[in-house]
């Protein structure tokens, strides 16, 4: 299963890359707004800097801020040329978004249909040729719906029709989400840096390591 980092922060990206766990990156307008960037030109430069940190074959999902079909197409074209091999155009699940995914699918430009909260939305995106869909697990859990159940149902529907669209589980908030997605067998998850670090932790590992070192140092001088 691929680990995507849900961030626009260069330092976080470098940290996860340094431990060999960076398979891709997803951003969104809220994540970009957390960085010290104040104009469109610098946003573009920032995306280029992120792409430089990504090895070949790894993708950065960049979300459009336009909402109508023609503006989505124009904006996405400008974003795509920043690094055509690495940038995936992230488009919201709307009628205009779906139309633009169909347009890009014909041009072989990869898209990520974001803000997916139902099987019906996932089906529309897959039929339109989205490369990824991003169902938001955590935000569903927040409103007392079962995010993991949604992922399972989407996987079943995609299997039934042999859709090539990949499931990129988003809004992943804790290690249990990651483990359950792995059990379901989905393609990728995207999550903030701390969730990835939390996978390393187990109290028995710390206790065991301390005991090994203590025993060794007691005897070996
Ligand atoms: C997905 O691509 C989004 O960027 C993200 O996963 C949303 O997560 P959140 O619900 O924690 O903001």
Structure description:
- The model has no long low-confidence stretch (mean pLDDT 98).
- The longest helix has 17 residues, at 203-219.
- The protein contains eleven helices and eight strands.
- The chain starts with a strand and ends with a helix.
- The protein has a single domain (2-219), classed as TIM Barrel, CATH 3.20.20.
- It is α/β, with parallel strands linked by helices and 221 residues long.
- Helices cover 52% and strands 17% of the residues.
- The chain has helices at residues 10-18, 29-33, 40-53, 69-80, 95-106, 119-127, 137-142, 147-161, 175-184, 193-198, 203-219; strands at residues 2-6, 24-26, 59-63, 87-92, 111-116, 132-135, 166-169, 188-191.
- It has an eight-stranded parallel barrel, surrounded by seven helices.
- The site of erythose-4-phosphate has 11 residues, from α7.
CATH domain topology: TIM Barrel
Q: Give the N-terminus to C-terminus distance in angstroms.
A: 44 Å
Principal-axis shape equals globular
The ligands found in this model are: erythose-4-phosphate
Number of helices: 11
Overall mean pLDDT score?
98
By helix and strand content, what is the structural category? Answer: alpha/beta
Low-confidence stretches: none
Spatial strand order of the main sheet: 1-2-3-4-5-6-7-8
C-alpha Rg (nearest Å): 19 Å
- Strand-and-helix sequence, N→C? EHEHHEHEHEHEHHEHEHH
Helical amount: 40-55%
Tell me the name of the CATH class.
Alpha Beta
Indicate the CATH architecture. Alpha-Beta Barrel
CATH superfamily: Aldolase class I
